[in-house]
Design brief:
Number of strands: 0
Strand content: under 5%
Distance between the termini: 61 Å
Order of helices and strands: HHHHH
Shape: elongated
Structural class: mainly alpha
């Protein structure tokens, strides 16, 4: 059921709904970093592929690095997907918070569920990101 609300109530609803927008900005920043890393992985992979074709042999070092780049790209791909899902869930929280001011329903469980799901997606994305960083720095540490 939709109810008539005074301007002050609508203004308060907008204030509540806009609060998660700061979270959107932060996650969007992380997403930007992830897409830049993926672009660098793709560029490096293309360079190695062209080098291996020119050499006409299967250089073990190149093949090893290509395998590592494939693993890194997979991790970053998952992180990007999870960050995007998190952003969509946060946008849903904003929309539900705003609509909740006009609809007389108890939507607290919906809002909490959407927010928790967004945070779980963000946590999983960050875990993928740290794993990718670990792989990227493995050769500096002398690891596999």
């Amino acid at each position: 059921m939709i109810t008539e609300l005074p301007v002050t109530t609508i203004a308060h609803a907008i204030q509540l709904a806009v609060a998660p927008v700061f979270l959107l900005t932060g996650v969007a920043g992380i997403l930007s970093v992830l897409t830049n890393r993926l672009a660098r992985i793709i560029d490096r992979s293309r360079a190695l592929h062209s080098r291996s074709l020119q050499a006409d042999d299967t250089n073990q070092a190149i093949q090893s690095e290509l395998k590592s780049l494939k693993q890194r790209a997979r991790l970053i791909h998952w992180a990007i997907g999870l960050c995007t899902t998190s952003l969509l869930l946060i946008c849903s929280v904003v929309a539900v918070l705003f609509l909740g001011s006009f609809i007389v329903l108890d939507i607290a469980v919906v809002i909490a569920s959407l927010f928790v799901a967004a945070m779980l997606c963000l946590i999983a994305a960050l875990l993928n990101f740290i794993c990718e960083i670990y792989l990227a720095t493995a050769h500096v540490r002398g690891g596999p």
